[in-house]
């Protein structure tokens, strides 16, 4: 009404504030209504007051004193910047000045600037002012001029373009209108460049036009930005009756924002935002801002009518679904928009963004096959599933990706502001749902620069490339990679013999050996071993080629579970897919895609390593009598080699599958304790535990050595060396140096077999001399000679022990020398010499050489090779 009164007084010839008006209106500001109203008021003239419904428009004393005023109207679609507009008289008008001259003065006025119009050069005020003066009382309405000028930038005129000429003409027009009485110009300009085009051109156009028009005229903004929410609400609802409810809702949101202020944008915790909620109720402010700021940046989008239509359809859909909605519905969020029911909204998106965006929406956002829906359906009882949170996040990001060419998408704080609601899911649920969506969505993009920002594009992302590559990976490829990783990890296990997925004939083994089974032989979860698994273990345990295996108690097994193998296979396919993409498509990848695939590959490999440990969690022991006995590992190490060395060995020793030494009760039970007249050969004792699978396995010869030394020292039995009845040495209550469990000369004998039976040989318990002094075999003291003199013995500066010993006796070195000489400034020199064999060649890149080279480096030892 204020503008109507100003226009009527100006056309009456009265002195007014300004007759050039820049009408700046934002989204929903009613500028079209204002222009239409002014148009009809001016066309009606004095007849306006004859209508009862119009009497309230003009102030008291303001009466139109004109009839037949001229009105010229120009919008962004009046004239095409390239082809112009065909008139009824048969000629074409190409410019803004051509249109205004023609509408104000007909063909006669147009002829005066015809050349300017055809050449698209702006007329001077000397040419255009007479046209305005002759028109008399006149109103010029220019709507959407900024949109027209953006198009005009593409039309070249001389060294410039049509926009520069139009911009120059606007300065001429404002000067002419200001100088000619009874003439009013109203031009609408958007409140921001995002409502023209989200680009530098849009900003340049808006700034230039604003300078030209406002320099002379006055800027009027009928509706402030904060009032836009009220405008939208009033157009969609008759009234909001319960003000107390609105206040309560605003308070609940403000309390939530305050409690979660670190996870949300700073501005939402201020009182201004609580007031914004009150004004926009029942809409969440971010829903309206999504349309106003982002969608409104596209000039093809109807900023007012289009948004009102979409909001109305959203409300209608929510009303229909009101009984099935979960949780508080105090405000209508972007995440409440169900695209599956809103064809008008999805149609608008494809109109603005292109038909290929329908694929984006169906693949990732809505529909039973969409990735967002699959995530929600996977766990329907969780907050993510109950609130359809992933679909809500995907919808929010989709809406934030429409229109804007720059600053597209949302960061995590903005996402949470859009979807969080009081007394519902936790903000961590938003993180979880978004992370899951990011892993599987085909068209979702993100950038970590300056904080993670997420948006959709119509170009498929790395996920879809990985998904395609995964379809080309075969089961045998996965199994081969598992075997490679097992062999690599096993190469770091040195204190246990490990065979990975053996395929050939396994020789007789006297050393404790772990056989890691091929992934094809998996243990069913919670069930009995499969036939194939049983046969594989039975064949290894009982057969050596075509012969029966003799050493049946030296092998145990590690198998994967079926569930663990499935999880491992899934992760391996992701890893192998990345490897395949980098190998086969590296030349076609963009730089950011290459980096992302590299990052994904590293991430997946870490997951594969963890899954490998959890997959191979079934230890197996076989005996002919009992069959297969399995044990599920309960603990998991950080890497597979540590899992074998630490957790596997520890747990099977707790289960007494493997023992470090042999207890007396066990010796008695298996009839391996000597008695008078019954001697036990140490080698037989050792091989008993290697041959017979009804007994525990032993860690190696050290288990027998430790047992013999312990019970000999404790007096349970004695140890004799030589031939029964012709012992060359008998040890009693002491340890046995250099005990070789494979030597047939060592025997366990009853304690009644004492050194005196040794055919006069000197032992550690030699007979006493005539003088009563003990004679000791190690010469630490000596008996007196016949004259009573004590002879003197040499004192050695040092002793050196060197030579070669069997590998099985290696553990005895510590007991015999290191422990014995630890107080004699003992120095140990180490030298290992190994040669290439047919079964284990020492090549430069072999796992064995790499492992020992790394170990030598860590211990500071010299590593030399002979080629």
Word description of this protein:
It is a single chain. This protein is α/β, with parallel strands linked by helices. The protein has 5 domains: 2-220, P-loop containing nucleotide triphosphate hydrolases (Rossmann fold), CATH 3.40.50; 227-460, no CATH class; 470-654, no CATH class; 660-757; 807-859, no CATH class. Helices cover 44% and strands 11% of the residues. The protein has 31 helices and 25 strands. The strands form 8 sheets. Strands 2-5-8-1-9 form a 5-stranded parallel sheet, sandwiched between helices. Strands 13-14-17-18-19 form a 5-stranded mixed sheet. A hairpin with a 2-residue loop joins strand 23 (718-723) and strand 24. Helix 1 (2-11) packs parallel to helix 2, helix 6 crosses helix 8 and helix 16 packs antiparallel against helix 18 (389-400). The longest helix has 25 residues, at 591-615. It starts with a helix and ends in an 8-residue tail after the last helix. The relative contact order is 0.04.
């Amino acid at each position: 009404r204020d503008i109507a009164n100003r226009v009527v007084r100006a056309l009456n010839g009265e002195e007014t504030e300004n007759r050039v008006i820049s009408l700046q209106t934002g989204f929903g500001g009613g500028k079209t209504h204002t222009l239409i109203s002014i148009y009809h008021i001016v066309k009606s003239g004095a007849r306006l007051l004859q209508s009862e419904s119009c009497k309230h428009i003009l102030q008291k004393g303001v009466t139109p004193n004109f009839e037949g005023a001229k009105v010229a109207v120009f919008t962004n679609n009046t004239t095409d910047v390239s082809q112009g507009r065909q008139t009824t008289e048969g000629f074409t008008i190409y410019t803004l000045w051509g249109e205004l001259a023609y509408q104000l003065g007909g063909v006669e006025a147009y002829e005066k600037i015809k050349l300017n119009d055809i050449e698209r050069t702006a007329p001077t005020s000397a040419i255009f002012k007479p046209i305005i003066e002759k028109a008399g009382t006149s109103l010029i309405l220019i709507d959407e001029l900024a949109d027209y000028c953006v198009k005009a930038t593409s039309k070249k005129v001389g060294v410039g373009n049509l926009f520069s000429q139009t911009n120059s003409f606007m300065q001429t027009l404002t000067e002419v209108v200001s100088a000619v009485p009874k003439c009013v110009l109203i031009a609408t300009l958007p409140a921001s460049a995002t409502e023209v085009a989200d680009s530098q051109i849009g900003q340049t156009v808006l700034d230039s036009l604003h300078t030209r028009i406002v320099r002379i005229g006055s800027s009027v903004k009928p509706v402030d930005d904060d009032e836009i929410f009220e405008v939208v609400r009033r157009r969609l609802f008759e009234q909001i009756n319960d003000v107390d409810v609105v206040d309560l809702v605003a308070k609940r949101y403000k309390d939530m924002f305050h409690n979660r202020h670190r996870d949300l944008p700073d501005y939402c915790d201020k009182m201004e935002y609580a007031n914004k909620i009150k004004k926009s109720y029942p809409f969440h402010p971010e829903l309206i801002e999504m349309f106003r700021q982002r969608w409104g940046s596209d000039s093809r989008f109807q900023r007012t009518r289009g948004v009102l239509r979409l909001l109305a359809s959203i409300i209608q859909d929510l009303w229909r679904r009101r009984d099935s909605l979960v949780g508080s519905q105090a405000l209508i969020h972007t995440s409440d928009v169900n695209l599956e029911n809103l064809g008008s909204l999805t149609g608008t998106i494809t109109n603005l963004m292109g038909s290929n965006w329908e694929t984006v929406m169906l693949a990732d956002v809505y529909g039973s096959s969409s990735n967002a829906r699959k995530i929600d359906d996977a766990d329907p009882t969780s907050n993510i599933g109950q609130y359809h949170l992933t679909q809500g996040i995907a919808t929010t990001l989709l809406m934030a990706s429409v229109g804007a060419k720059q600053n597209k998408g949302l960061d995590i704080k903005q996402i949470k502001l859009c979807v969080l609601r009081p007394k519902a899911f936790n903000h961590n649920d938003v993180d979880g749902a978004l992370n899951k969506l990011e892993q599987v969505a085909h068209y979702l993009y993100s950038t970590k620069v300056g904080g993670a920002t997420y948006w959709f594009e119509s170009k498929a992302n790395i996920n879809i490339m990985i998904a395609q590559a995964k379809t080309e990976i075969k089961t045998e490829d996965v199994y081969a990679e598992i075997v490679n990783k097992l062999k690599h990890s096993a190469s770091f296990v040195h204190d246990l013999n490990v065979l990975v997925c053996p395929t050939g004939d396994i020789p007789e083994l006297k050393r404790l050996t772990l056989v890691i089974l091929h992934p094809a032989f998996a243990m069913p979860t919670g069930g009995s071993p499969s036939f194939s698994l049983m046969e594989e273990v039975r064949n290894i345990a009982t057969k050596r080629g075509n012969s029966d295996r003799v050493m049946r108690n030296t092998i145990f097994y590690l198998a994967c579970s079926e569930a663990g193998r499935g999880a491992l296979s899934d992760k391996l396919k992701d890893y192998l897919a990345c490897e395949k993409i980098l190998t086969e498509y590296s030349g076609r990848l963009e730089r950011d895609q290459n980096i992302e695939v590299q990052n994904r590959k590293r991430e997946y490999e870490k997951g594969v390593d963890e899954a490998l440990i959890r997959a191979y969690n079934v230890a197996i022991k076989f005996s002919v009598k009992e069959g297969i006995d399995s044990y599920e590992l309960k603990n998991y190490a950080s890497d597979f080699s540590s899992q074998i060395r630490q957790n596997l060995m520890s747990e099977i020793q707790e289960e007494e599958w493997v023992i470090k030494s042999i207890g007396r009760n066990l010796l008695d039970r298996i009839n391996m304790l000597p008695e008078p007249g019954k001697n036990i050969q140490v080698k037989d004792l050792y091989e008993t535990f290697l041959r017979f699978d009804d007994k525990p396995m032993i860690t190696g010869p050290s288990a027998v050595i430790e047992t013999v030394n312990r019970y000999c020292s404790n007096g349970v039995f004695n140890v004799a060396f030589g031939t029964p009845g012709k012992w060359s040495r008998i040890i009693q209550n002491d340890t046995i140096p250099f005990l070789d469990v494979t030597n047939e000369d060592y025997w366990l004998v009853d304690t009644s077999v004492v050194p005196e039976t040794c055919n006069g040989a000197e032992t550690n318990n030699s007979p006493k001399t005539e003088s009563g002094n003990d004679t000791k075999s190690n010469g630490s003291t000596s008996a007196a000679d016949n004259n009573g003199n004590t002879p003197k013995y040499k004192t050695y500066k040092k002793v050196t022990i060197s030579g070669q010993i069997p590998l099985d006796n290696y553990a005895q070195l510590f007991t015999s020398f290191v422990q014995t000489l630890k107080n004699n400034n003992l120095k140990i020199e180490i030298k290992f010499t190994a040669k290439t064999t047919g079964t284990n060649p020492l090549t430069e890149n072999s796992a064995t050489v790499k492992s020992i080279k790394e170990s030598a480096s860590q211990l500071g030892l010299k590593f030399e090779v002979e080629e």
